[in-house]
Design goal:
The protein has 15 helices and 17 strands. It has about 450 residues and is α/β, with parallel strands linked by helices. It folds into two domains: about 35-65 and about 345-455, Aspartate Aminotransferase, domain 1; about 70-345, Aspartate Aminotransferase, domain 2 (3-Layer(aba) Sandwich). The protein has a seven-stranded mixed β-sheet with strand order 4-12-11-10-7-5-6, sandwiched between helices. A four-stranded mixed β-sheet has the order 1-2-3-15. A four-stranded antiparallel β-sheet has the order 13-14-17-16, covered by helices on one side.
């Protein structure tokens, strides 16, 4: 693009586009980046600048940009059909992907319901659990509520926001939301019980047990981000927490809904986070990396038991009256098939263990920085929590926007990352090279050092 075209596009971005999770007044005060293309681990803007994609394009890109196999799958499907409804009829990629997905999912999950985002995948799970108890012979119509966790994030639709526990994102909409029971979530760095893992007895899990003990007859499901609460700042749960939630659900006859939108498809070092503790949820929600980062697609997986609760004659109105226009989109499903096949063909889950170890090694160096309070990692998900005082764990004043300044400093050095408040998130794609991983960590280290030394 020539200079005039670039300037016009930048101005049109400011004039026409309302960016998500972005204060637009401040967005206009900073130099904007408009991405034009990507290849491998790299993004290229309209001015020709190259950036290492340190967050997998918001946690979606699994194999790198412009992966030839995925490109070919998408192009091949465009030669057949781009979209047809899944309401009452089907399409080839939607059927085949459902088969392949169930083959790698935790055992016992048997049905796939498609949608188009993590929020809708969770919304569907809520409605399934709720409706099951209203109409199934094995259900309990009194079970109309949900148990969720503090610091939870499950999406931005009203139902998924109702489950959330992050005031910054959710408090504004309080009057629109339905009530839930909230249990403590593990935040070992800032434990509300002043305990230390592994010496603690997971008091946070005991809170959930007490709520279920008192209210299980009105709770339809427990909703959990297994292993890692992503948007809360990469809060990693201690070993046994996910298994403990599953055991509580079994004990009190409550469904377990696992929101694996952020942690699914290899992010944590296994295909799905629940598999670390040999857990099968009753309902599992998937999105983000499901299509390798190519097209919007989501899936809500559930058991034969729950599915059977929706079977009946037409006059019984047991149908699950929920659907999306682009449900089971053939293009998205075709790419998702190719993405899933890559895991086996390229032995990704074995190869990624080396990347996880390298990331762990490089993150250890961050402990030497005077304003890094905590470093959390699970697989290729990492959160670096910045603090004003390392001894007291005092936060930086929000007005300083320390995390934001760090990621802008990294951007100057050719790396794109994003903060969650003052937690710097690193989320490389599963195939990022060792040299690129080292670059990502080195630039992040330097950016934190530069910004916090000035603070």
């Amino acid at each position: 693009m020539d200079k005039e075209e670039i300037e016009k596009l930048q101005q049109a971005d400011l004039d026409c586009v309302w960016h998500p999770f972005t204060q637009m007044k401040l967005y206009g005060e900073e130099t904007t980046v408009i991405i034009e293309r990507g290849k491998g681990s790299w993004l290229y803007d309209i001015e020709g600048n190259a950036y290492l994609d340190g967050i997998s394009s918001l946690w979606t890109n699994m194999h790198g940009h412009g992966k030839e196999v995925l490109d070919k799958a998408l192009k091949a499907q465009t030669g057949l059909i781009a979209h047809s409804t899944l309401l009452g009829i089907s399409n080839v990629p939607a059927v085949r992907f459902a088969q392949k997905l169930l083959e790698v999912a935790p055992p016992g999950l048997a049905k796939v319901f498609y949608s188009d985002s993590g929020s809708t995948a969770v919304e569907i799970a809520l409605k399934m659990a709720f409706q099951y108890h209203r109409q199934s012979a094995q259900g309990n119509p009194r079970k109309r509520k949900f148990l969720t966790f503090v610091n939870a994030y499950h999406g931005d639709t009203i139902g998924s926001v109702s489950l959330g526990g992050i005031d910054l994102f959710h408090e504004m909409y309080r009057d629109l939301l339905f009530g839930t029971y909230k249990a403590a979530s593990p935040y070992c760095y800032r434990c509300p019980y002043d305990q230390q893992y592994p010496g603690c007895k997971m008091d946070c899990l005991e809170v959930a047990r007490k709520i279920l003990d008192e209210h299980h007859d009105e709770i339809a499901a427990v909703v959990l981000e297994p292993l890692v609460q992503g948007a809360a700042g990469i809060l990693v749960q201690p070993d046994g927490f996910v298994r403990g939630v599953r055991e509580l659900c079994d004990r009190y006859d409550v469904f377990m809904i696992a929101d694996e939108v952020a942690v699914g498809f290899g992010r944590t070092g296994k295909m799905f986070a629940c598999q670390h503790e040999w857990v099968t949820p009753d309902i599992m929600c998937l999105a983000k990396g499901i299509s390798g980062g190519y097209l919007p697609l989501a899936a809500t997986l559930t058991t034969e038991k729950i599915f059977a609760g929706f079977l009946g004659e037409a006059v019984e109105n047991k149908t699950f009256f929920h659907g999306h226009t682009y449900t089971g989109n053939p293009l998205a499903c075709a790419v998702a098939i190719a993405s899933l096949e890559l895991f086996a063909e390229e032995n990704i889950m074995e190869r990624v263990q080396g990347s996880i170890a390298l990331l762990r090694e490089k993150l250890a160096d961050f402990q030497h920085l005077s304003h890094v309070g905590d470093i959390r990692q699970k697989g290729l998900m990492a959160g670096i929590e910045l603090v004003a005082d390392k001894k007291t764990k005092e936060n930086f004043p929000p007005g300083k926007r320390t995390g934001h300044r760090v990621i802008m400093e990294a951007r100057k050095r050719g790396v794109i990352i994003r903060p969650l408040g003052d937690v710097i998130v690193l989320m490389p794609h599963l195939g990022m090279s060792p040299d690129e991983l080292e670059l990502l960590c080195r630039v992040t280290y330097e950016a934190i050092q530069t910004v916090t030394e000035k603070t």
